[in-house]
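This entry is passed on directly below:
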Amino acid sequence: MPNPPPHPPPPQKRLQPLSQTPPLPPPADRDDDGDGDDLPLTPPAAQAGDEVTFVVSADAVGERLDVFLTKAFPDRSRSFLARAIDRGAVRVDGLAARSSLKLRAGNQVRFTVPQPPRDGPAAEEIPLDFIHLDAWMAVVDKPAGMVVHPAKGNWKGTLAGALKWHLERAGEAGGLSIAGGPTRPGIVHRLDRDTSGVILVARTDEAHHALAKQFEQRTTEKTYLAITQTAPQFDRDEINLPIGIHPYQREKMAVRRDHATSREAVTRYEVLERFRGAALIRVTPKTGRTHQIRVHLAAIGCPVLCDGLYSGRTVIEPVFLRLPAGPPLLQRQALHAASITIDHPVSRERLTFSAPLPADIERMLATLRSVGS
């Protein structure tokens, strides 16, 4: 029997961002590495020395001031921000405040943005698979388990540190853009720590701005491959659901309507193969929200396989497929950035870069095929 046609998405209400002066950088990811499946990094609007104003929303009521600021600036430690508060760099409703102050809805938090705690990541000898490298940009096949740039709790083992080592070894020291900030050299967009695949890197500030503009204007084309836990009802469909910060677990995102953090989010998918209790799908995000693919697939009852944050499973054991006991079949989310299409930042040539499925996902697919549908 043929599949029914895709159901139409519900009408969405476009929400305005929180009041803020000047505009803030994109919301930080709630994962350890501070990035999302597909969250572009534009050059930061709030530079060190700028005055920034936050309006406290209802979901932050009762938070300590230092905790609130740590979430707003994840690349600064809580102790670093606490010292800034003690020095009088922070005002709440125009008055000096202590780190322990409990915030109320509508409070205006104004402070001078502090300098980052370090100049940039240290060069680290970590193997990298370069898909493309020229004087203006690089394209890397990022392995799962690697954070993109240094952030609290993840100062080592980063893509940024590995890039620095490889370029210095090739005699190209300093060959990364710093338009995104000193702790994020070259980083134009991001992938979650446990998402593998294609990621772009800018080598000059000119290239960074040109690439970032393409993400902002949504002229890039990105495809992901994912294995879902349970198969979608439709062979292809569009998910049009707004995404905001989870109401109770701030490390997560969630489908949320009519909330200050809600943002329009659109994801298209196509089922490539169906298995027993799973499916291989091609995903095309049309917007770039934190954890967008993971949140949207979970929202339709088909979370990414082995996504501990949204499926509840951090390991896929053989028993999951009714197989005899043995080594784990998968130990990270089955999500891979398969390709990206952009205009070259200098030549403007339209280019597509691809990365093959990594071995762990290929093995998982082979096992799923062996047990049938």
Q: What stands out?
A: The CA atoms of residues 1 and 234 lie 12 Å apart. The domain at 221-371 is CATH 3.30.2350.10 (Pseudouridine synthase).
